[in-house]
Amino acid sequence: MIAASAGPIDTERLRLEPLVERDLAEVHAIYADPDTWRHLPSGRHLDAATTAAMLERSARSWRAAGVGTWVVRRNDAEARRLGASAATVLGTAAATAIDGGMLNLGYRFAPAAWGSGYASEAAAAVLAAAGEAAPARTLTARVLVGNPASIRVLERLGLELRWSGGGTGGGSTGAAALERRIYADRALDDEQLRALIALG
Ligand SMILES: CC(C)(COP(=O)(O)OP(=O)(O)OC[C@H]1O[C@@H](n2cnc3c(N)ncnc32)[C@H](O)[C@@H]1OP(=O)(O)O)[C@@H](O)C(=O)NCCC(=O)NCCS
Fold first, then answer.
1. How far apart (Å, rounded) are the C-alpha atoms in residues 28 and 197?
2. 4 within a domain of the structure (yes/no)
3. For a tag on the chain, would you pick the N or C end, based on fewer CB atoms within 10 A?
4. pTM of the predicted protein model
């Protein structure tokens, strides 16, 4: 039986904790901020219910695969170093179960936290957690070509480019009409690749 949620993950500068209901207001503020959707304005969360649905997806993923969405904060030492609060949510990092025996890697940080390597540090921790909890699942990530910071994070993680293209339609956010890339930690079979392309 896979746990419905896991404990925290500590990295050098960060503490990752599974997303819970009391985080939703802070997480929603990040997902509702147009600056965190510059590359895909249609994806912005327009209401709190859209963010609450993330919690549902995360819980389902935890039950299915032992991983889901984590909320990322500075640890005490990093907060002290910067004179900042360790309570502030910096962003999220997630490995979410999707069809085809795969995980989808995702992250979104508040603009004030960009440029310090936090996304790379958190995503590396999630990648390691996924490798432990769900080693049989292929870890994948979809990114728009117009999002070079995210591409850089994926490449620093060592994920490999498996497909690039665009303008094929499908998906729910309009991403399918844009030029994009698919990365994964291992080879994808045709069915997996088709499914990922269809997600947009
Ligand atoms: C993508 C995102 C998570 C990166 O967060 P971050 O904490 O600044 O990321 P990091 O500092 O770990 O790494 C970013 C890397 O991109 C690089 N980068 C940033 N802007 C860039 C640009 N315009 N062009 C090229 N590289 C860029 C940085 O230099 C850094 O690489 P380096 O460490 O080799 O110097 C953040 O910008 C974000 O939340 N964006 C909005 C949400 C989003 O796009 N999520 C991903 C959807 S696929």
1. 27
2. no
3. N
4. 0.94
